[in-house]
Amino acid sequence: MISVNDFKTGLTVEVEGDIFTVIDFQHVKPGKGAAFVRSKLKNLRNGNTVERTFRAGETIGRAIIENRAVQYLYNSGNEYSFMDNETYDQFELEKKQLEWEINFLKENMTVNITSYQGEILGIQLPNSVDLKVVETEPGIKGNTAQGATKNATVETGLTLQVPLFINEGDVLLIDTREGKYVSRA
């Protein structure tokens, strides 16, 4: 158990049977009435964000989240197969659990799996990945206004904005948190 007075950003807690991570919190001491903690929590099972208010000093369950390194193997339809790097056990996750992460997954890539008491909550990608451009329009000579961009599709199917000098076959460094171009790799 943990007191809501001890909230920190990134802390994982269990509230009413769901697992949440603390995104933001604020301790409030009104001039009249009891103190309370206003918080913004992200549900780790479905990704929804909720705002909750707790009385100061209230205790809630602490959720211990386990992270393990796994290797992405392949996908077949809506199933994505992974292998644990330590035990070599293989398991599948459904496409709906990996909606954002699919944009960056390449075969044989190492990612971290997040689980709580044996229940797999999702995967954590590295902050950036290298992906090859498979389709883009050619840069038009003379179209060099500052910050000009064009669409490019990378090997995983993600379409993003890139500078005009990027060509098909280039390998790009892409930020997985926002899905944006960082640089050429």
Query: Helix and strand succession?
Result: EEEEEEEEEEEEEEEE
Structural class: mainly beta
Termini Cα gap: 45 Å
Broad shape? flat
Q: Total helix count? A: 0
Q: Biggest sheet, in brief?
A: 6 strands, antiparallel
Pathway: Protein biosynthesis; polypeptide chain elongation
Domain Translation elongation factor P/YeiP central: 67-121
Organism: Paenibacillus sepulcri
Family: Belongs to the elongation factor P family.
Give a description of the structure.
With 185 residues, the protein is mainly β. The protein is built from no helices and 16 strands. The strands form three sheets. It has a six-stranded antiparallel beta sheet with strand order 1-6-2-3-4-5, with no helix packed on it. The chain has a five-stranded antiparallel beta sheet with strand order 9-8-7-10-11, with no helix packed on it. Strand 3 and strand 4 form a beta hairpin. The termini are far apart. The model has no long low-confidence stretch (mean pLDDT 88).
Q: Which key terms come to mind for this protein?
A:
185 residues; cytoplasm; Transl_elong_P/YeiP_cen; 16 strands; mainly beta; translation elongation factor activity; single chain; 5-stranded antiparallel sheet; Transl_elong_P/YeiP_CS
